[in-house]
Design brief:
Blueprint: E1 6-17, E2 20-31, E3 35-39, H1 46-54, E4 61-66, E5 69-70, E6 85-89, H2 99-107, H3 111-118, H4 137-150, E7 155-159, H5 167-184, E8 187-192, H6 195-198, E9 204-209, E10 212-218, H7 220-239
Parallel strand pairs: 3-8, 3-9, 6-7, 7-8
Antiparallel strand pairs: 1-2, 1-4, 4-5, 9-10
Length: about 240
């Protein structure tokens, strides 16, 4: 196997909280430019794994390699997460600033284009000048996902993907994530308790159970990619 295709490699990783073993993964590989789904029930270790991959936490034992190297640490032993990795947690997190101000401070002059793309119809039009503290959980989730998509990271990690979104919003974000992956080569890793929520979006699904990798399966996106590749090859043969 060509190791140059890997962006992450996990080797005998173990994570312990308060003497409780929440993760124990012998070997796991994540390939560049691929969309992954981490699936499992509450308490299966999804969030803990995503925090290891994002560099927010350090493994108790074992190795986690990013681009063939472990994350750097400070003199105090804290992991230094690379700026090119963006981790999004959809748990409640609010501020007193307006939505427009939030995007202006994070995205500068591009904030007006973001407004036109994401806040141009339905109830979203009224969110732009609202205070973030007044938003519903679903509206706050939308803000965080828009910010994530527009940040253009090398790796995008989203915990609890799709929760609190209505069908229209989820379909909109899914289309943009596919485009981001296809056009920019972004590696995307999503977690969910619901397989159906991500099956059509991801290429690989990794199922966790009690901190262990229970199985790995292909998602619909992998099948569609193979079919698209097959059609391209057939067209080339027909031209020849």
């Amino acid at each position: 196997m060509n190791r140059n295709t890997l962006i992450y490699e996990v080797q005998d990783l173990k994570k312990v909280y308060d003497k409780r073993n929440v993760l124990q993964i012998g070997r796991l590989q994540v390939h560049k430019g691929t969309i992954y789904g981490i699936v499992g029930p509450v308490g299966s270790g999804k969030t803990s794994l995503l925090k290891q991959l994002s560099g927010l936490e350090k493994p108790t034992e074992g190795k986690l390699l990013y681009d063939e190297s472990e994350f750097k640490t400070s003199l105090l032993g804290k992991v230094k997460s690379p700026d090119e990795i963006k981790y999004i947690s959809l748990t409640d997190s609010r501020s007193n600033e307006r939505v427009s101000r939030y995007f202006s401070s994070h995205h500068g002059k591009r904030s007006e284009e973001i407004r036109k793309q994401y806040f141009n119809k339905g109830f979203r039009r009224f969110m732009w000048e609202q205070n973030i503290a007044s938003l519903s959980q679903g509206e706050l989730t939308w803000i965080k996902l828009v910010d994530a998509v527009e940040s253009d990271p090398r790796v995008l990690i989203i915990d609890n993907y799709g929760s609190m979104l209505d069908d229209e919003m989820e379909q909109d974000i899914s289309r943009r994530l596919r485009r981001m992956n296809r056009n920019l080569g972004t590696t995307i890793i999503l977690s969910t308790t619901n397989t159906r929520r991500i099956q059509k979006l991801v290429s690989v699904m990794i199922f966790l159970d009690k901190g262990h990798v229970a199985k790995i399966r292909s998602g619909s996106q992998h099948k569609e990619s193979k079919q698209r590749h097959g059609r391209q090859q057939q067209r080339r043969r027909n031209r020849n």
